Amino acid sequence: MGTILVYEAFGSGWEDSWDGKLHNARTHHDWDKNALQLVFPEGEHYGCSLHREVTPSRHVKMSYNVSVLDGWESDSTGKTLGFADLRWKNSKGQSNGHGNRRPAPDGFSFRTWFGKTEDGRMPIGMYIYHLGQKPEWGDSIPVGEVVVGADPVLFECDANLDEGFVHARIDGGEWVRHNIVVSDKTAVTWAWLDAYYGGAAVSPKTMAWDVFEYQLEKVGVVRPRGTEKIPISNKRVDLSLIHPKFMDRIKLFFGDDRIKGKVEVVSGCRSYAEQKRLYDKYRAGKGNLAANPDWNRPNGFFKGSFHQEQSDGYAYAIDLGIVGKISKAEVTEIAKRYGFRPTVKGEWWHFQPRDENDWFPSTSFPDEDVPVRPMDWQGLLAFVAGIGESIGRYPLSRGARGPEVKVVQQRLNAMDFWCGAADGVFGRKTQKAVRAFQRVSLSPINGIVDGTVWAAMWAPQVPNGL
Fold it and tell me: Is 443 exposed, middle or buried (0-12, 13-18, 19+ CB in 10 A)?
């Protein structure tokens, strides 16, 4: 069992999730798939140099399909797609994991090697920098050949840093193994779309090849799910209605070592009544910008703010705050990799996992293909009935605490009897909201929630004459 770190099919906007330079690469459609075409112009070295940070991994598998286009005649060697650990720098700030030099003890890189074309066939294999490499410039290990102008072939590589080997194969053939030496600090931290022709040599003419469906997988781990506690700025921050898929992404985000202790959630989900209160306050010039909770968004499903509870029972936005040494740009970039991003111009802190049309991609830990269950309304009704039975036996009044109080508060807020954040503590605001509801429903005004008041809260009637 493994976790997909990167799956790149080169669809529209694909390059937005990669860093580096595209150089002479371009995308097009061939073999009924999108392809990244790596072009080596005459007299140049670079076809592409893109990378993406991934969760540090000690055991990975990489695969992609490659087709060498007609006219390819390499007269030198070169390197292309792979993965690496380039965190380690020399005194000049250069990555000690690749290049024509021996890497730092903790550096490591793997790139696909290609050699000189002979009789229409291009050799392909492994090019590895590691602590135990033999020549100064890294280890080159042939694996097989690719026929120029023929159909695409599958190139696969498996790197196990714990066991000390990398092996590769072509089109399901025999694995070719190469032993490596790395330190216990070494891990794959980059996915790499690289394409470099020659050492001192440059491309003798303009040539190209196509790659399809690059994938990097972390092997032998179970995808973390629902284990990270989410830090909030205060007890008023409510995350109870956040969509489960979004909640999973948030937990993974806060499990990232770059985020821990540096970021917190300062605003979560809201009821309709709370959103309306914020909007009315904004309209009166006494509060920050807030969306009209009754505004129908263009697609007809979402209303008002993504913070507020939508028709499916879930909310789709949080606000983040910085509490440690990290920049807004860093927070935004890491969040994007977990599938949520700022969507309101001028508000870096407002993050959503989707817009009106679709979910944003999650690249660090792509979402599992498991449908999210719809809101269990029958279960909710049973829960409400159970709370009612408890309140019927033990009425709630000022000073009470517990889950029953929190549900009462949420219900009061939803009916626009604002009692503040639902924190499970029956205080002055809650008592005031209960009395206001009792006044409107013509119940005895005592600020106590008993079985009769609870039933009225779920079947409110406007008395005759009002």
Answer: middle
